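Box 3.1 A note on notation
Throughout this textbook, protein chains are presented in two layers. The first layer is the amino acid sequence; the second is a token string describing backbone geometry. Keep the layers aligned when reading.
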Amino acid sequence: LKQFVSEPVLLALQADLKSILPQKRDVSILFADIRGFSAMAERLSPQELSDMLNLNYFTPCDDVIFAFNGTLDKHIGDGIMAIYGAPVSHGNDAEHAVLSALRMREEVTRINAQMIEAGLQISVGFGVSTGEVMAGVFGSKRKKEYTAFGPPVNIAARLEHLAEGNQILICQETQARVRDIVETERIDACALKGIDRRIEIFTVIGRKEKNSLTKGGPVV
């Protein structure tokens, strides 16, 4: 079952089925997506593309999500969606989401160094948004999944789409919760597709030297 649902969802299922029923939760949503994936797919055989994605992208990024107490929501093509704060909240979920993005970026750099001889390089954009969502098990009798719906999901997806390769974009609410642990830089507010208000956007530069979370992982 762990191959189909994330461990937090599995533990919540085992402890209390009511915990995964749709309910309002304060969460941070992370989206990640490879830049130039279509061009890469044209150059590689289906087997080569599958191996590259599974071994050099999904596996290391998914491991980071679990290490920082996130719930792996889904893989969408070459995209990844993760939830921090549901079904289990750790109180500093925005920090975990942003530090996950930073660690993923580091992993991509490490993997690129290993793949350079094969002529392969991955460039990933990240988006993180924080706020209230409806999180729980949704679906039909044919198929159900644990996921989240709400403005933060849409904003995180739009920020990821806006991000350049290796750039981490976060919303103002996320920035307010992580400004003590990471360096950020404000980007001009802009209208995001499907969002009827202007969003303050920040790009994450990196960790501050002194913070409450260690470089090796979260303190839990």
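The longest helix spans residues 93-115. The helical segments are 7-15, 37-43, 46-67, 93-115, 151-162, 172-178.
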